[in-house]
Amino acid sequence: MTSQLDTIHARIGIGGVVADNRLQSVHLEPYPQLCAHGVVRIAVWVLMADIIGGWEAERSSGTDWTFTTDLSVRAPVLRVPARVEGTSVALRIGKGHVAAEAFMHDESGELFAYSQVGFIRMPRRPNDPPKPDMASSAKNWGQREQLGSLLAEAAGAQVIDPVIGHVEVVLDDALRNPAGAMQGAMVALVGELASEELATHHLGRQHVVTDIDVRYLAMGRVGPIYSRAAFIGPPALGSIRVELRDRGNNDRLMSAMLARVAPAPEPS
Description:
With 268 residues, the protein is α+β, with helices and mostly antiparallel strands. It has a single domain (4-263), classed as Hotdog Thioesterase (Thiol Ester Dehydrase, Chain A). It has 4 helices and 14 strands. The strands form 2 sheets. Strands 1-2-6-7-8-5-11-14-13-12-10-9 form a 12-stranded antiparallel sheet. The protein has a two-stranded antiparallel sheet with strand order 3-4. A hairpin with a 2-residue loop joins strand 1 (15-19) and strand 2. The protein is globular, with a radius of gyration of 17 Å.
């Protein structure tokens, strides 16, 4: 079994700053394997928002699991920043639901990306694996071996049919979270690829995803995981809807997403 230290999302390289046993911020210096077509993949910012927003949920959850229910990211700036730092603020802390917002600032202090994220609390089952200590884990973030291949390749994503945004991944351990389900940023990555492939094919030039809204409807546990995507309105407007399903679990609907695409920046 793959250690959580060796999962794809762990090796993206997001580091954490811990003080007073509290995760204060996260940071990342993007490197080529996280980028595609002149931008950092939006799934990377999904992961950053999930981590820093998830801290707000974790510190109020006791021994319960916290699972992401919905996550939105806006990343309209079409360039690769030298460094991004993420912080979060709780919007609501309830008995069963937590909402937070995440701010991702670049090296100049400008707001580079923004996220809103929601979480639900669920009791641990008797046979569940141990719940990780985020504060302790954060001290080792950023010290893991970074990805040696492009993020989509490392995840094993295969484009089956760009006409319908059909992308597939085999659900191996490197894509799972500590609870054994497909990790949220990896779910978003498949949706990002589906949107990108659909738009690039139909619009005749390379596109990238700038906005994504992910609703996590069910845990992906079996696989393969596959996507379907379609335009909302005229393709030139760049609005797309995506579904992800778990073929090995009776085609269960895992996630519904909305995405917006834009033409990729011209190479400098």
